[in-house]
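[job 0412] stage=fold_complex status=start
inputs:
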Amino acid sequence: MLLACLLVLLVLLVVVLAKTRSKKLLDLHRQIKVDFPYIPVIGHAYKFIGNNEGRMMMFDELARQAYTNKHGMASFWIENYLCISISDPVTASVVLKNFSDKWPITVPMRHLIGNGSVFGEEEIWRLRRKILIPVFNSKYCDYFVKIFERNNKTLMEKLTAVVDKGDFSTWEYFSAYTLESAFEMTFGENLKVQKNPNHPFAVAFQDYFKNGAARVCQPWLYCNVLYELLPVGAKQNRNKKVIWDCVEDLIKKKKMLSKEPLENTIGHDTNTQGGQFKSFLDLLIEFSGGEAGYTDTELREETLVLILAATDSTATALCLATVLLANHPEVQDKVFQEIKEVLGDSERSLDNLAKLKYLDAVVKETMRLYPPAPVTIRRCDKDLELPSGLVLNEGCYFLLNIWGVHRNPGCWGADADEFKPERFLSATPDQLAAFMPFGHGPRSCTGLHLALTSIKYSLVELTRRYRVTPASSYEYSQQKPLRVTFDIMLKHVHQFKVQLENRR
Ligand code: HEM
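[job 0412] stage=fold_complex status=done
writing structure:
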């Protein structure tokens, strides 16, 4: 009897869900399709169950299916939501220009950063983006670069401990460097995370991000009330308190200092340069309208966005570039030669980064093959006709498969899966348009110049001092590429391990 009732309920659920799928979306799916069996009620959601490495493989599989589809897309159902994975660069740029809402991926991250711009609702984000843009003006960024210089010295010192010691995880070192730098750019204070990895903010922040990334991949954990009943939810609340307390104290302190005469404030920040340095927090206060501008809550949200957006993304790119240099010694030799020829022993490498063309190609090729943010999401809130004539209908969701765009053989050739920095020395305009590690359109990354400076500068200092060699704990070759996982950012199953030797 019970079984019969359950069966009737299931049939009813299937009928109700089928009815709630609009005819337009059903037609759209019929035109695009995916080569996976459809299961009533859950759709293709079963393909995303499993671990984060499996999810990355799924994004790759969606991309490969899309390459052979005439629309360059693959569509699938998560319950009765239609999702369209896009691996065609032209369609990706049209979608990113026309749609800015990121629901529902934003839901879990709002627990920590509320309406902060990277995950904020579209209407709030539009206002905040206007304030964010001038913060990244090059005249302020010149001072941020000095932060990289100082913190990089600590990084190089720390790395001496692992020279000739066999495999080590670059993540541990580079993520401490990027967190320390992001925090200092944001608040003008140095947490000294590299020297003290157990700093409560660093521990809480890193743990929060790790658990948050796992939650993003499990939509059944999106309901805050239920999530907070779980042990991990309670832990996230404790982490959030540590993070918020630290940030709120700094905001209060900054506001108090701003009321004092200038001569009393100089020297409070570790990196004040004759009173000219302005942290992201200073700039956000100023550009939002000073005392009448952002509230303390808005400042907390926006400063946390900046730390969040700048830390793991930059560390991931830096770690991946190092792993690829270790496994491609011929590329590493060329980078070293270029540094020797262009910079010699000059201490002023930061001023000359733009002259390092081959290094630029290496960094781009790393982010092409392994984009730190491999996918992003957009919600379709209006019908849109593509140049191909296909109409994308309101109500569907887009999975912008940056990983897939970057490996599309139609743009990059039959060797798209191979690491060949030289391709960026002669890249065509179409290829450059198909390169979008920092996103594209109105919601693209505001910090790309800072990120590239930090990555290139670190690689210069690293390559000058050390030779990176492959780790012994995993194999890498064209046939055995890096095993990667999706933790919102791309991560490496083998913790970005390499070995280090002294050059001098
Ligand atoms: C290699 C390093 C980085 C990568 C690969 C990266 C990538 C991205 C991508 C793909 C987006 C757009 C996401 C989307 O469209 O949904 C984004 C947004 C953003 N990034 Fe970056 N990013 C990096 C470093 C940075 C740094 C260093 C900062 C700041 C100092 C920063 C600040 C931001 C902000 C504020 C946004 C949100 C923009 C908005 O929603 O209007 N990023 N980033």
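[job 0412] summary: Confidence is low (pLDDT under 50) at residues 264-273.
[job 0412] exit 0
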